Amino acid sequence: MRHARAVDVPLSVDRSSGVSLGEQLVGQVRDLVARGVLCAGDPLPSSRVLAERLGISRGTVVTAWDVLAGEGYLTADRGATRIAPDVRVVPAASELPISTTPPRSTRTRRSVPDTGQIDLRPGKAVIAELDTPAWRGAWRDAASADAGAVPLRQHLADYLRLNRGVVREPDDIVITAGARDGLQLVLRVLGALRGRRLRVAVEDPGYSALRRVVEATGHIAIPIPVDEFGLNPGSLPTGEWAGTGTWDVVETPDAVVVTPGHQYPLGGTMPVSRRLELLRWARGHRAVVIEDDYDSELRYTGQPLPALAALDADRDTVVTLGSFTKVLGNGVGVGHLVAPDDLLPRLHTLRTELGSPVSAVAQRAIARFMDSGHLQRHTARMRRAYRRRRSLIAHALADLPGVAVVPMAGGSHAVIEMPREAVAVAGAAQRGVLVSGLGEYWAASASRAETRTMTPARDTAEAVPAEQPRADLREGLVLGLTASDAELEKGLQVLRNVLGS
């Protein structure tokens, strides 16, 4: 007789969460094990039974169970899926990166999403192209008893040398759970060295998640405007007299967070002249440049410039953050960083003290995927897919007055400039298509046409944020390119109607 808990396990899905259904199941089982709700040997529902109960595809459940088996949570016992007999209580799911593959059914059934909505927001859709035997095989091999050591840092060193022009030894590389995790490590180390709150310059508009990391860790974010070539070092505060009766800021930034390879979200590439100027500015002001090298491998027009760290011959100025998010999806929480020589020992020590958020299984799986050459082939497929989808967007909206698709040389998102951004976002959502507004990436709300700048407090040594009007705020939409061609075409039909009206 079937164990009662095989049908009573408290699993559910939320189609409005923006997280793929498979990732939700993986995270919930991890959490149930961590809280002792599920114990060693407990049966789980069969994939067919659970799929019917939740109203999702069986392939989604099978894929989630495969990921959990690869991580050591589940085992197959005479046809039944059970919690592994040697499972350990691990941190809650919220403390772990969710590493999963997209549902197998997405390769043939992505034309109608499970949610009834088409989600075209950046980073929200799963990457269906990753659902391959090679990807699943890498996880199975990584979880086997004789998987051996973790060679990921050696593979990353080879990747950085051959693809980004950065020559570092494997021991120089710190494994992270992605760019945000890496930025937190760097800010903690730099803050301890400076012994105070840091002043961190960030691009405006820019990747809001990194700006939130700066603020959440107790430091001061200083928005710096960007142009068609990204951040202009001439716009950085110098702490010098401006000649107009005010100071630009009381003191210069301790760090600058930039996306020189492909500015996010506007897409500009920082030329070599600006890169060298930025390094000179940083050395002159004892600042650290933190480079978010988030999608350099996805350039499909011309060759990408080397990473900013490749110009840092003295290895004293640049931190480079890297991750696999734009190629493998948000569910794969594996990244890396390299840093100036004087910061590296402290970063390694902090990583050891805090513990790695990336399991050995996940590191081995990525390493095997890289070693087999499948990562390179998958990346090439994604470049072609993203280029094709960007062309779909440009063609679908080309004849709409007042609407312009911003030219970009690569990446996994597209920017559409147009007026009345908030009206367009709301109108699309009412018709079942979710998009992001460009205003979300500014340091202050575009609806108020204001942004934060730093002005000195009258009686303090700290700069304080003040609201100043900005006339150069641009309005528009930001679309992710990870949705399938079929979803994108349907979403674009809706957007044409919304923007055309």
Features:
single chain, about 500 residues, alpha/beta, Arc Repressor Mutant, subunit A, Aspartate Aminotransferase, domain 2, Aspartate Aminotransferase, domain 1, 3 domains, 8-stranded mixed sheet, 4-stranded antiparallel sheet, 16 helices, about 35% helix, about 15% strand, disordered N terminus
Molecular structure report:
The protein has 501 residues and is α/β, with parallel strands linked by helices. It has three domains: 5-96, Winged helix-like DNA-binding domain superfamily/Winged helix DNA-binding domain (Arc Repressor Mutant, subunit A, Orthogonal Bundle), CATH 1.10.10.10; 152-372, Type I PLP-dependent aspartate aminotransferase-like (Major domain) (Aspartate Aminotransferase, domain 2, 3-Layer(aba) Sandwich); 376-500, Alpha-Beta Complex (Aspartate Aminotransferase, domain 1). The protein has 16 helices and 18 strands. Strands 4-11-10-9-8-5-6-7 form an eight-stranded mixed β-sheet, sandwiched between helices. A hairpin with a 7-residue loop joins β12 and β13.
Describe the structure concisely for a colleague:
With 501 residues, the chain is α/β, with parallel strands linked by helices. The protein has helices spanning 5-8, 21-34, 47-54, 58-70, 106-109, 133-143, 152-164, 179-194, 208-216, 272-284, 325-328, 344-354, 360-371, 374-397, 421-430, 485-500; strands at residues 74-77, 80-83, 118-119, 174-176, 199-204, 220-227, 230-231, 255-258, 288-292, 318-323, 335-338, 404-405, 413-417, 433-434, 436-437, 450-456, 463-469, 476-480. The protein is globular and about 70 Å long.
